Amino acid sequence: MILALLDTLAKGKKVDVKMSGSPFSLPENLASDEASPYWMNKGDNAWQLTAATLVGLQSIPGLLILYGGSVKKKWAVNSAFMVLYAFACVIFCWAVWGYRMSFGEKMIPIWGKPNVALDGHYLIQKAFLGKLPNATMVYFQGVFAAITLILIAGALLGRMNFYAWMLFVPLWLTFSYTVTAFSIWYPSGFLAKMGIIDYSGGYVIHLSSGVAGFTAAYWVGPRLTQDRQRFPPNNILLMLAGAGLLWMGWSGFNGGDPYTVNTDASLAVLNTHICTATSLLTWLALDLVFFRKPSIIGAVQGMITGLVCITPAAGVVQGWAAILMGLCSGSIPWFTMMVVHKRSELLQMVDDTMAVLHTHAIAGTLGGILSGLFAVPKLNRFFYGTSLHYVGLFYGFTDGRVGAGLRQMGVQLLGILFVVVLNIVSTSIICRLVQQIVPLRMSEEDMEIGDEAAHGEEAYAIWDDEEAKVDCKYELPKSKGAGQVELT
């Protein structure tokens, strides 16, 4: 009887069992009720809400203070405000129409039907994956969508017209992000059906944001010449605080994507930190060898490329693979940024402020390819429920499934091509459309001034060059008696 009961519970079915004439009851914390239906796992739901909040903290305040500290003093407010606005705008649009376009009823093979995710009856129903309510899934996926737009902002800091940014955010969310999310993450999407491996957003978030950011930077145009030539961080310690929030928040970024509390989630979190640490150390070593100085900014770049590279593979590769991926993510983007970019006239034409092409597009592409090489069939089975089409090429050779491994690499490459083309085209169209309404770029005069011109506010007004205008001034002590000083 007990074995039958446990089997029924394991299958997620409602239990109504009587023993010796008395109703058998579960412990109160496990028993289902109207607010905790039998299909919902309380532990999974608690972790998912926590993971979503960790991802949200990566943006607010993580990237907000990372961007605010990484730019010139005159752009600190504008850069931080671009992050804050994007987060709020995306969350609103996501609930009103974006979520259902990404994870709702299929309209076409690459897109869902637009619909609201606000109805109370809908929000308390079971989500499309996991033992969670829709409300939790809307929140979790919403903070992922928000950070994608915020990463795009990194390429546009220091010159984009804020009014243009206000229009760009909802348009790009609607006509680019939702398409990629549906195609790759939703079970009805065409790339999802083909078996693409994107554990937590190497394609949907990082490759998309890197390509879109670089494309948008082309259309917006460059910063002022003096800003491109010299753009020192106004507060490196603040920048490091933001970077730390980004790194630690990635535990929720990758650890939340199994939608359950299991060994795969644990593996994803550990692999995330292993790869990131290896990548940072690799980037630092290269800086020491070639520039003879350990760069803090370089270390942060290496940290980011490690986080990005492991994301599509976090829960489907072994620890040794995470180290290899860290070595690659700390060296290949370093080479493209420090060598290829400086020698390429085409790349230098585009002013990518935070180098998102290298830290997100190239690192995301690298992660997608390495996922196709190192993905373990057993771990894929943990995550996807089957290993039929999820075979890393290296395991295809060792397990006698070379055809499946080659097919997997083909799907991974097809996914890269799809995301790159989609984002170049959609981002270009959106930028051209916005340009018909408001200028994409601030005026030369406003860019000379920065925050004061854009928002009428400054980050460090008390330490401005015009300190003489401060009303309170200290004068030399006047004779008022022993120990007395007059403040005028």
TrEMBL record:
Keyword Membrane: yes
InterPro entries membership: Ammonium/urea_transptr, Ammonium_transpt, Ammonium_transpt_CS, NH4_transpt_AmtB-like_dom, RhesusRHD
Ranges for domain Ammonium transporter AmtB-like: 46-460
The keyword Glycoprotein belongs to this UniProt entry's keyword annotation: no
Subcellular location: Cell membrane
Superkingdom of source: Eukaryota
Principal localisation: membrane
UniProt GO cellular component terms: plasma membrane
Annotated membrane topology: Multi-pass membrane protein
Membrane spanning residue stretches: 46-68, 75-97, 138-157, 164-186, 201-221, 233-250, 270-291, 303-335, 355-375, 410-434
Sample GO molecular function, one term: ammonium channel activity
The entry's keywords: Ammonia transport, Membrane, Transmembrane, Transmembrane helix, Transport
Family to which this protein belongs: Belongs to the ammonia transporter channel (TC 1.A.11.2) family.
The name this protein goes by in its record: Ammonium transporter
Organism field: Durio zibethinus
